[in-house]
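Progress note, project year one: complex with adenosine-5'-triphosphate.
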Amino acid sequence: MAALTVQGIRKRFGKVPALRGVDLQVADGEFCVLLGPSGCGKSTLLSIVAGLTAPDEGSILFDGRPVDHLSPRERDVAMVFQSYALYPHMTVAENMGFGLRMRRVPKSEIRRSVLDAARLLGIENLLDRKPRDLSGGQRQRVAMGRAIVRRPNLFLLDEPLSNLDARLRAGVRLELKRIHQQLRGTVVYVTHDQVEALTLGEQVVVMGEGRIHQADAPERIYSRPRSTFVARFIGSPEMNLYRGQIVHEKGKNRFEGPGFAVDIGRTQIPAGEAELGIRPEDIRMGGPEFSLTARVQLVSHLGAEKIVNAQIGNAPITFCVSKESRLQADDRVYLVMPPEGLHFFRNGLRVD
Ligand code: ATP
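Model obtained:
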């Protein structure tokens, strides 16, 4: 397996800038997830790493050596895409061994590798079947198996679970994680699903409009988003964000938002315009001693908890309450925004 370096990659399609200067480092054996909204350039980046698309500028390196001049085959990457593209006339075993047959690996060795991968994926009883006789999830595993058998430099996976229903998806996701722990292959995995990104990624790369906004451990992406773009993109329901002013007065610090003010505790952030963010799950309910009064508009049941949409000052606010809560529309509640749950941004970028 190889470490991957992406250096200053730029790519335009006609007038459309798909990638505007991307730098990224993926360690040997790391599971890296590219996450971002549709059209942000994830697939283009993957295709450039694979050697299927040529960049306008920049370089791709495996283990520190440029591979720009190498064909996809010479780069020895295994790709699994949304459409599994299994050969319909071949059995599962033949599909899985195809890459090795092309490389003229001895038959006995192919058989052993296919069986090992099939065991890992729990599909050894399907080896004689044709793809048409498999469920979506099974086809998915065969496609993964075909990639695993090759023992490539790099696995490139582009939304490989998007055709599966939610339950199957969760199952295959767990399986992928387990397989990665066993094989420790270098993986670059594209998704627009944040749950998938946070559960699978050791490094999560949040992209938007052809740029990397943050490349970090999943915990940090969630707890210390570097920009309002990342803050909004990660977390469900979305983080509450308010434009306002930080004011220091008589030894006290507060944030003045649209029609409400919050005590922000000790802070080093200079006074002036700022955006305050707080995640719905970090907001607590308190007594009347707290000046944050909200009026409930809508309560939605999510099973494990309830999500409340309310009005605070002149702005909307979303917060979570326990499933036992009896809150209902038109109730007045007192909210607490604990200082440790607050995020501050200036010009869209985190400050603190
Ligand atoms: P999705 O999640 O929808 O697959 P993505 O993040 O993978 O999106 P890309 O497919 O990389 O995005 O596309 C990035 C941008 O480049 C988009 O604006 C897209 O329309 C454009 N683009 C991609 N491929 C081509 C192409 N072959 N010709 C013209 N424009 C393209």
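DSSP finds nine helices and 21 strands in the chain.
The longest strand covers residues 16-26.
No further modelling is planned for this target in the current period.
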